[in-house]
Fold each of these.
Amino acid sequence: MIIPGRSQKQGTSLNAGKLGEEYLEVTSTAELNQDDMKRLGLEDGDRIRLRTTTGESVVRCKGRKPEDLPAGMIFLPYGPSSSQLMASDTAGSGMPISKNFEVEVEVL
Amino acid sequence: MGDNIKIIENATCTFCGCVCDDMHLTVDLDEKKITKAKNACVLGRAWFAQHGIPDYPQATIGGKEASVEDAVEEAAQILAEAKFPIIYGLSDTTCEAQRHAVAIADLIHGCIDTTTSVCHGPSGIAFQGVGESTATLGEVKNRADFIMYWGGNPAESHPRHFTRYAVTTKGLYTPNGKKDRTVVLVDVRKTPSAPVADIFLSVKPGRDFELAWALRALVKGRKLDPSIEQVTGVSLATLEDLVDRMKNCRYGVLFFGMGLTMTRGRHFNSGAVLALTTDLNEFTHFVAKPVRGHGNVTGADNVLSWQTGYPFGVNFSRGFPRFNPGEFTTVDTLARGDADAALIIASDPASNFPRKAIEHLGAIPVIALDTKQTQTTNLARVAFITATYGINTAGTVYRMDDVPITLRKAFDSPYPTDEEILTAIRRRVQALCGGPAVPLRKVS
Ligand code: SF4
């Protein structure tokens, strides 16, 4: 289950320019539950591939304590990487499902 | 720093929907830079610090530098010739510019939609179905003793929401600030907003509707089975305690974020918390407000509503406005491949839309207006770099509580404003399409 969202760093780096290195780095770093990371043999900074039926993107991962981010959840700041994963069907609402959708994680 | 320093009091930050109008700016007029922004939060400081004068051409056609006049001509030709043109964005520009975008949509018989459709569009749909019991942030500051945030993380998205309007700020009937208020946060993860909350409810992902419905049942005095915990992730005892506090507060506020609108259920989720708010008014005074993102997204809803009767997702192809989310909203018109030209104002769909929509955007002629180069200006056939609202241009923006705020300019920019470019495109499109001769306000 992935939750793309805003973060403070995503907000400040956005001002510097969406084509800037910082924005691109912030928006391609996913937060994972630390226990999940351990189970997958991942460390901070390791690369993973996220995949949905729509698309895929490669991001770096960063651990978060289980109290802050429950197992099975991933947080990714909005940006080009999260866009790749989003399906375009809006079910007649105009809004694509942009949070809480399932992704497959592949360790690289 | 040069000697030519100007101080601007009560300037406005337009980075987020809080639209804080108590900025104290120090401007270096020689360097054309804001060197200090007192009272701004970390996002506001970055907003002011990073908006100097960029070094881009004012206009490009096909990636090559062009005069603004030529670019306006090219843009008008594209829009006038298109069969299904769409206009999108608008949440980071002034109401004065937004007005012209609506007029252009009318002239070209196109669609007009704003970033609302991918943020609180579902709440807009819910307002039409359920209604809104509302308040200004000034009322919240002075009166509210129970504050609930649901599906939002203001500490990172609207940092001064807590300190200026809702949590720690001291008001007429809340003289002790936070001590006079109960703060509740509902989210699927413990966000950086959690430390401010007295009560944190960890709802199961995708179960916001069920949680709101359970609260409604309890407010109405119905009995619930303890198994509600398996459904929502929150124990019955916690829910009962919460309902008790909600019913017994003096003035309650429910601020809801995109955790409700962007997930399964969408407008039903927003509708559920609005209905819960209505129910609570049998017992006490309770209001609900969506926490809006971009600086003037609320203005975009207002301008479209005055001029077309609808807040977003509007189509003029029959010569009169029609509203149909899912049909006339931008992700849909792009992903379905309907749109054959796009005018994008102050927004970057090429970086944040679903992939299929971005692919179509890359296949049609795009006209983009932005203060910086973005993925969207990069793929645009015609791109204009414009002056930044609230820094280089005055005008009007709406705070998230629908209160209009007047902007003050900090320093001049060599770049034209969105209003100037859109006025020029509107004039030319009018001549090409032979629309009614609407008198245009002179732009200074
Ligand atoms: S809260 Fe929003 S409007 Fe206020 S200073 Fe921060 S970014 Fe600007």
Amino acid sequence: MKIPVTITVNGKKHETEVEPRTLLVHFLRENLAMTGTHVGCDTSSCGACTVLLDGKALKSCTMLAIQADGREVTTIEGMAQDDKLHPIQQGFHEKHGLQCGFCTPGMVMTAADLLANNPKPSETEIRHALEGNFCRCTGYHNIVESIQHAAHAMNG
Amino acid sequence: MTFIGKSVKRVEDKRFLTGKGRYTDDIKLPGMTHAVIIRSPHAHARILNVNTSKAEALPGVVKIFTGKDVAELNGVPCGWQVDFKNGDTMKEPPHKLMVADKTRHVGDAVAMIIAETYAIAKDAADMVVVDYDEMKAAINMREAIKPGAPLVHDDVPNNICFDWELGSDKAEVDAAMAASHHVTTLEFINQRVIPNAIEPRSAIGHYDTANDRYTLYTSSQNPHLIRLLLCAFVLGLPEHRVRVVSPDVGGGFGSKIFHYTEEALVVWASNQIKRPIKWTAERRESFMTDAHGRDHVTKAEMGFDADGKMTALRVKTLANMGAYLSTFAPCVPTWLHGTLLQGLYTTPKVHVDVTAVFTHTTAVDAYRGAGRPEATYLLERLIDTAALEMKMDPAELRYKNFIPAFDGVKQEGYTTQVALQYDSGNYEPVLKRALEMVGYADFRKEQEQARKDGRLLGIGFSTYVEACGIAPSAVVGALGARAGLFESAHVRVQPTGKVSVYTGAHSHGQGHETTFAQIVADKFGIPLEDVILEHGDSDSVAFGMGTYGSRSLAVGGSAIVKSIEKVIEKGTKIAAHLLEAAETDIEFAEGKWTVKGSDKSVGFGDVSLTAYVPHNYPEGLEPGLDFSSFYDPANFTYPFGAHIAVVEIDKETGKVDLKRFVAVDDVGNVINPMIVDGQIHGGVAQGIGQALFEGAIYDEDGQLVNGTYMDYTMPRADDLPMFEVDRTVTPCPHNPLGVKGAGEAGCIGSTPAVANAVMDALSPYGIFDLEMPLTPERVWTAMQNSDAVV
Ligand code: FES
Ligand code: FES
């Protein structure tokens, strides 16, 4: 049995049918072939799958695609505009906030939510905001600096 | 144009930042099927029956294979042989692709479901009924080697894989120990940790019937070696018809070096069903089947004279192999551990004894640092404990025992008691710098005041040397390696002067596309964007030994330099011809060949074009500007450093707050400081993870109790401070770049520094020795059990 849904992803409306059990992350990766959103675990612990749902950061492995019906999803693929990196992406580039890149989409999306609500976060606030996202490569040091860099670029 | 030594921003970043990275699980081939593996829930059980009939009837199921179907195939081989002390051959039981008779750890593969979709394969897996006859398991190493313990493999008595020793004459070590003024003894467990790269392992097998070719996409640090093992040892496939591609790899830390059964399974099965098959581990499968790290049970004793000079070191270790021998498992507790036990000290007598043990647990193999963190933990815990016992300053105690500086050029390399010759080292400055950065003199005052105020502040040290840049092939061959450990490089200058570089190293986060391009652009004097790096595909890269053991730059980078030199040499011939001068009068610098002492020159692009349009060309010279090289290092490289941790412990909860972490590392010359700092950060974080948070917990039945991300504690952003890093530079004397390698250093130095800091903080309680991870519960309990009034 498939269920019709309308989900807007990065500004583009997708009217389609999904199996009720399909997770949002699998909908993005399998149905839409948008593989920038990653799966790192099966317990909603790693944050590699983080996207924005109506502007709020959300682990897309914790939600069914049908629950996103009628809503707006932003993924990592929607961050850069006209080939110009979003300031958060630019911050990660400037400050070497990524190594293997696997956690990176989730980190960027989490940072987007943070900076939308707290334009000038302290180091502690950044670290707190990232507590749902694992990075095994960077030790977080440069991720913190990347987000500070982005905050500065976005808000002076 | 100078690029070497500059913090050039990474050229690979953009694809990762925009969601365009291409990891194995991102790949979708036409007609691709999906595999789910049914794994044993028991550590040790006889398989009585596997009933797949219901699952087979489910629409969408393509095929189900069980252990019986692969019984005739070889298993995955071990790549290193360490024989018994008495000369008997290492016990090397088979590691079949799936088991038919008996399971040997939780997660052992029993059957593989292949279906049209992943969801159908999962549904079908639930319908397979496996009857097991559960048996007692051997989990704890100390118990496993006792007579009468359950056997992991029927033909391995007492579960002993091999025993091994190294160092000075045992009787001399015993005598030196007995004659020591003071002996510090520690008995401890260097606990099992789980690498946990955030990208789960994934493999896609594809047999192309029309061309009789196989392709394996796999999340591996080591695609060429996987191909060799797969072809020559497991499936007996013709190597030239097999392509192994390792696309973007989401971290490895050692765990993706090894040849895993799933890689062979998807390749073999794709020929059976004539369709591509993808398998991707769920996280719980990664916990059960990725090779784990560490897991030593150790007794270590260090002797000192009255002045605090080390007199002897004696070490006895049980090393867990798990249920099967993973690719490099035997060399980790031996040649990567025993050989590092002299550390950076002049200890005159050293003896190490290792017994490798099979247990009904997941295989253990190299994890970031591999053997060297175990050696460093042992030494550095002994030294800080000895300092406490002898009431000496731990920094002073180290200064007293450091090997004096040697550069490997004017002074010879330093030969240890445990088989190595260090290439170059200058140990005092790293500790001096770290002490300065942490403000040691003031810290002790602050600590004294804090203690008066009832606060528990502690400082811990660790100075280390490691062996990396792995490795001279002949040397490791003599030590039991069944592979060479050279690296290959191919530098192809295109007619327009653009350069493609092919390396057998394979980045899984280290930024090779940037660092290696920096070397090439720098040496050729061309813009960075004129260089592109290709790696990870056995069709484009001739051969390679992969990325691990901090070897990519020291070995792979050196191979690239060899090819660069060949290009320049041939370019000189072409330039001499074009400039009508003698070759000896030509010099190459900044992208052009110039007649010495004149302004007559010809550029890199012109020479490149001439090489491919050889109209006006030296007689007898082959066209083209395209060179491959193999580089086999003369020695290991020996980075070193000093790490200092400052902690404060909450008396009420036992929680350790890591307040500061200072790391001064010497990794030889540095190509890209930004990337090297990033490697140090990441390594330090993992080492801190082992000290404070991480540890695999098996119950007595062999269940991995904390086998999920919810239960296995890894450091999160709010567990760690900003790291304070610096470096000194002591070039490697035996490779052309003077580099030593930086991938593992952080993870080797950091663990004991943190553990020592916790012990220092707890010293008012008379607590000197606690097992890692130093969780609040463990620390709190120790404080409660102490009689001291603090
Ligand atoms: S995949 Fe790990 S939290 Fe979603
Ligand atoms: S960059 Fe590899 S997990 Fe974060």
